[in-house]
Amino acid sequence: xxxxxxxxxxxxxxxxxxxxxxxxxxxxxxxxxxxxxxxxxxxxxxxxxxxxxxxxxxxxxxxxxxxxxxxxxxxxxxxxxxxxxxxxxxxxxxxxxxxxxxxxxxxxxxxxxxxxxxxxxxxxxxxxxxxxxxxxxxxxxxxxxxxxxxxxxxxxxxxxxxxxxxxxxxxxxxxxxxxxxxxxxxxxxxxxxxxxxxxxxxxxxxxxxxxxxxxxxxxxxxxxxxxxxxxxxxxxxxxxxxxxxxxxxxxxxxxxxxxxxxxxxxxxxxxxxxxxxxxxxxxxxxxxxxxxxxxxxxxxxxxxxxxxxxxxxxxxxxxxxxxxxxxxxxxxxxxxxxxxxxxxxxxxxxxxxxxxxxxxxxxxxxxxxxxxxxxxxxxxxxxxxxxxxxxxxxxxxxxxxxxxxxxxxxxxxxxxxxxxxxxxxxxxxxxxxxxxxxxxxxxxxxxxxxxxxxxxxxxxxxxxxxxxxxxxxxxxxxxxxxxxxxxxxxxx
Length: 492
Fold this sequence. Notes:
Elements: E1 2-7, H1 11-22, E2 25-30, E3 42-45, E4 48-51, E5 57-58, H2 65-73, E6 81-83, E7 90-94, E8 99-103, H3 107-117, H4 122-137, H5 156-159, H6 162-169, H7 173-179, H8 183-186, H9 195-206, E9 209-212, H10 217-229, E10 233-235, E11 240-246, E12 249-255, E13 260-261, E14 265-268, H11 272-278, H12 286-294, E15 300-308, E16 319-323, E17 333-336, E18 349-356, H13 374-394, E19 402-408, H14 410-417, H15 434-437, E20 448-450, H16 459-475, H17 479-490
Parallel strand pairs: 1-2, 1-14, 2-10, 7-16, 14-20
Antiparallel strand pairs: 3-4, 5-9, 6-9, 7-8, 11-12, 12-13, 15-18, 15-19, 16-17, 17-18
């Protein structure tokens, strides 16, 4: 049996491992945390579960790319998803304008709604949204299409910045702000973020978004089962601290517990900066290491996890984005009320997040969770109060409805996910220098491959698509894409 060791049990590692398990590989996944799943992890406080990531995502509509992938893996029956409201899939409030928009599901409905709100921009809106879908069509893997392996040429719009694209179609400042509402979900900078990232994420949301019903951990557990049923293993609390390399080939990995694992192939699902820290120093060239260390990170975030008093706050079946909140932090935020089984009229919990630069916590960067000191706790409470103050602008009696609130900072994300500077979305893509952050799934070390959000695109969708690319680097180009499409077309 072919063997593979995967370093890191995040979404990328688990999906890659599950795909390879279906290809006959004996997969061993090694995860440093006591809970597997990366962004799928949930945590409990006072008996209440909170998701750490994966709050809202697309791709699970009928015929959607993620639906096809997870149907092929056989896990759709193992997970429980809830689609957001058809007529208000995403809700956006422009705080400085005092106006709220309810964006519907579906391309034609989406265009019609915006045209109704901005009649003078009707034709421009239609052209702009159509262009976003055209740009998404340039990414074959996004639609699970087979490719010939050649380097594809893309349109100028695809590689240009978000602002360049949007400014060519839209002139109304308020509409421009509204169309950028997803920035908090990819840490985007409209001046430099490539338009294709904006197009792919918007396409996912326009086609309809979903949330996990109950714990997001269910996805990690379902993928683990696929790996274990094929004879593999997923081992938590087993941190890889050294990757041994001889003659440009990995010979084994050592863990903090003193265990050694060997396989024919190895896949890294950890941040490239972390990979450089644990691999043999001679494995990569100085030029490569310098480039990796110079790539800027996307923004981190500050999150507040709220437990409501019983029957106090109405359940909302969508994500709510608030823009132009303050001149200082927070400038924008997003909140969701995660659904539970037998969801009723009232929400049990809420997750509120706002982008935050790592510089705000840099003074505590050499501390560890639970031992950061009183000054840090006071600062964290101050940031929490700022977030709750914004919520009070939307709901004046919000605090009265809260039973308790917890918070996490960029340091929390850094320490649990292993992301450099607590980055939420991996390397920052820059339309002016795309090659800087461009990563290949194959490396100069013959049997070492990469997966995860730093390779291509972040999020559940981006990481799952990258997992296909990584797995196919071992089993053959188009092999898995072809099997996914055949499986889904053969289904009744």
